[in-house]
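Bug report

Summary: structure tokens for GapA-binding peptide SR1P differ between web form and batch submission.
Environment: batch mode, default settings.
Steps: 1) Submit the sequence below via batch. 2) Compare with the web form result.

Sequence submitted:
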Amino acid sequence: MGTIVCQDCQKVIDYYDEEKVTTIYSTCPTCKSNK
């Protein structure tokens, strides 16, 4: 199970199928629109 986390607000954006437990940092739409 993989997790996509917003690097600005640390909120979980999405989950995806992955054999290992991994975390990818991205930016959620809310934080993107605030910049």
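Above is the batch result. After comparison, the two runs are identical; trailing whitespace caused the diff. The longest helix spans residues 29-33. The chain has one helix and three strands.
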